[in-house]
Amino acid sequence: MYNGNGGKMSSPVHVLFGSGDRMALGRGLAELRAGRPVMIVGTDGSNSAALLALPAEKLQPARLEAFSQIVAPSRPRLILSERRASAIGHEHRGALRLDLPESIEASAIRELVEAPVVTGRLRGAPASVREQAGVRLMKLAQMLPALLVAEVPSEREPGMARLAVQVDSRALDGFVAEAPSSLSIVSEAVIPLESAGRARFVVFRDGLGETATAVVVGDPDRSRAMPVRIHSACLTGDVFGSRRCDCGEQLRLALARLAEIGGGIVLYLPQEGRGLGLANKMRAYALQDTGLDTTDANMMLGFDDDERDYGCAARMLQLLGCRQVLLLTNNPAKLEGLARAGIDVIGRMPLEGTINADNRRYMMAKAERAGHQLEALAADGED
Questions:
Q1: How many domains does the chain have?
Q2: Segments of 194-312 assigned E as strands
């Protein structure tokens, strides 16, 4: 099929469904979020057998028994992220493969996946390429980065292929890299705000169906550097006024500040808990209640301290016609991440919220462990 200029057009199937790899990855993430296994395909050296992968979080005895029966005579293995492996005493680079004994119970696997203290130690080895891809898939699904895996016996592979989505490990890098380019504007409307007057809400959707919103305050001058706040969604702080973070106050301060200086943009991104997702954020909060700070809690669960990527934020700004920005933030990593994504960041405007008894430890961890520039804490330390 050709277009009017003599160039070859995509087939109707490709136009409707996109590339097969992207479609499979999107469906695979949905399956993992629903707790169902996926098949990870691709070649690990000489091993090309399909790998059945099941999320390990909230694993129940019946599901462990069913998984073991399906993959027999293979034995299930547990794959953990590098951060989680380190948290339970395995120091090496990359994701970890743990060989599970035949008699292990689901509760013992859950302990290996998320307990603050793990008793006993299993033999570990570096994870394969496909197993590492499984960890990355779990992070993209905003689930704990741990999964059960095993090769599917050849006689059962056709049947499993009809049931389980097949995800090609080799396509994952391209999928992540192309995600920002899949963003498009799907709707917009004017909303009157208490702290910022009339603002235009512009909603974006990506290739996975995830949405992000740009809140355009006032009528900013696009010929100059655009004042911008990149704000990760925080249900507890933004909506319910949680006192254990400063997110809600920062959002309201940003809107008011933009209104005062003549306009700007707030990018409201679905990156709850610095990219961990709401469920994992609650898990991290529970660990913080035992004495860990926010950085160590995230790492105990198997995540990096900050899992966010700013490629989508950069793409949103480009679609809005912004190439040069002034960021409202206390976090230097945001300046670096946006600059790496192709946006000219000319400077930073501080945006400090109130420090209270409930968020002081969190704010100190952000300053001391993540490099946030918080003048109020510095001044407090001088008294």
A1: 2
A2: 197-205, 211-218, 226-232, 263-269
